[in-house]
Specification:
- It comes from Paracoccus fontiphilus.
- It is an enzyme of class 2 (transferase).
- It holds the Pfam family Aminotran_3.
- Its EC number is 2.6.1.11.
- The chain is α/β, with parallel strands linked by helices.
- It folds into two domains: about 15-50 and about 290-385, Aspartate Aminotransferase, domain 1; about 50-290, Type I PLP-dependent aspartate aminotransferase-like (Major domain) (Aspartate Aminotransferase, domain 2), CATH 3.40.640.
- It has twelve helices and 17 strands.
- The strands form four sheets. Strands 4-12-11-10-7-5-6 form a seven-stranded mixed beta sheet, sandwiched between helices. Strands 1-2-3-15 form a four-stranded mixed beta sheet. A four-stranded antiparallel beta sheet has the order 13-14-17-16, with helices on one face.
- Strand 8 and strand 9 (about 190) form a beta hairpin.
- The radius of gyration is 21 Å and the shape is globular.
- The relative contact order is 0.17.
- Bound molecules: pyridoxal-5'-phosphate (PLP).
- Pyridoxal-5'-phosphate binds near residues 185 and 213.
Length: about 400
């Protein structure tokens, strides 16, 4: 008999009833050190007092207001995002998938309004942009699309990081290039600054829009507010979600005035998108994370964590190949699929997340302490040793 919850996930037999910072407390009272953060979502840890205050304060006032009216909390969040990024304008969504859908619509509308037949969006193998029909067509992975055809047309996948393939594929008919600066689900695979600069240059040469998916790598995860800042380039459109709500469902599409020009009244909408509750939390997350001192701490801790992980890899050469990633978006490339290692982590009361390309993802809350980093590495060490 089918479970009452649609069985689309292989779930571990653990349930959590409480959280405190980097710790998730299970129903049996045991404490798990959380290096998954709900997949890069809980950027400020569990039950962060500032976020609880922002949420409960707003919850006592008004939860939901239609976009038929002005929403000051939404304007505040948009102001903060514009102030700290390349963007001129922002649409607030409830998830990363919805952000991807709007990004695709925005690209199409841009070229439609230019009177040009440019609909092809170039994407990359190993990409993840969500699970809607549009987002699976964009990523094109066999695993995600099988059985869900016909696929939405207009996407072409290129080998990951293959700039020769991009140069050969991009033409004056290309609508956009859509890419994650650091692939998350694909296995914590960062693009080099030089690659990102070259992608921007190729888009400029052919007039194509550059769409960056920073749903996983954004919001301070890499040590900059957004990962593309390292390369000194800016996109035309960017998707954000996961970390921006600190655990409350929230996403956004950021765009330049030019790229967004076609999105006039009536062209897009959302019942819940930009509601006061989500935006009150999102604005508080932005105030905390977009702070230079906070980001400097993320970088300091990331260097400490990485150094310890290099030692871990050296100590278990039969389990690990290397460390990769940037900031606190780290991956341990393993010799085999990391499913057993994730399980061995559970036995050590440690939460990690598997990814493609034999990679174990480590995505701790950005405010994890030095002591917790040392404890996490000790638990990873025991988990790896238990596999031998
Ligand atoms: C998680 C993710 C998405 C989809 O976000 P949802 O909130 O799950 O819809 C899109 N792009 C990237 C890079 C992601 O990591």
């Amino acid at each position: 008999m089918i479970s009452h919850v649609l069985p689309t996930y292989n779930r571990a037999p653990i349930a959590f009833e409480k959280g405190e910072g980097a710790w998730a407390i299970a129903t049996d009272g045991s404490r798990y050190l959380d290096l998954g953060s709900g997949i890069a979502v809980n950027v400020l840890g569990h039950a962060n007092p500032d976020l609880v205050a922002a949420l409960t304060e707003q919850a006592g006032r008004i939860w939901h207001v239609s976009n038929l009216y002005q929403i000051p909390q939404q304007e505040r969040l948009a102001d903060l995002l514009v102030e700290h990024t390349f963007a001129d304008t922002v649409f607030i969504t409830n998830s990363g998938t919805e952000a991807a859908e709007l990004a695709i619509k925005m690209v199409r509308k841009y070229w439609h309004d230019q009177g040009q037949d440019r609909t092809e969006i170039l994407t990359f193998e190993g990409a993840f942009h969500g699970r809607s029909t549009g987002a699976i067509a964009a990523a094109g992975s066999e695993k995600m699309v099988k059985g869900f055809g016909p696929l939405m047309p207009g996407f072409r996948q290129l080998p990951w990081g293959d700039l020769d393939a991009l140069e050969a594929a991009i033409t004056d008919r290309t609508a956009a290039v859509m890419i994650e600066p650091v692939q998350g689900e694909g296995g914590i695979r960062p693009l080099s600054d030089a690659d990102l600069q070259q992608i921007r240059a190729l888009c400029d040469k052919h007039g194509a829009l550059l769409v960056l998916d920073e749903v996983q790598c954004g919001m301070g995860r890499t040590g900059r507010l957004f990962a593309h800042e390292y390369a000194g380039i800016t996109p035309d459109i960017m998707m954000v979600a996961k970390g921006i709500g600190g655990g409350f469902p929230l996403g956004a599409v950021l765009a330049t005035e030019k790229a967004a020009a076609g999105m006039v009244a009536g062209t897009h909408g959302s019942t819940y998108g930009g509601n006061p509750l989500a935006c009150a939390v999102g604005a508080r997350v932005m105030e905390i994370v977009a702070d230079d001192a906070f980001l400097a701490e993320v970088n300091r801790k990331a260097a400490l964590f990485r150094q310890k992980l290099e030692g871990l890899v050296a100590a278990h050469p039969d389990v690990f190949e290397c460390v990769r990633g940037q900031g606190l978006m780290l991956g341990l490339k393993c010799k085999a699929a990391p499913a057993d290692l994730v399980k061995a982590g559970y036995a050590q009361h440690l939460l990690t997340v598997p990814a493609a390309d034999n990679t174990l993802r480590l995505l701790p809350p950005l405010n994890i302490t030095d002591e917790e980093i040392a404890e996490a590495v000790a638990r990873l060490d025991r988990a790896a040793a238990s596999l031998a």
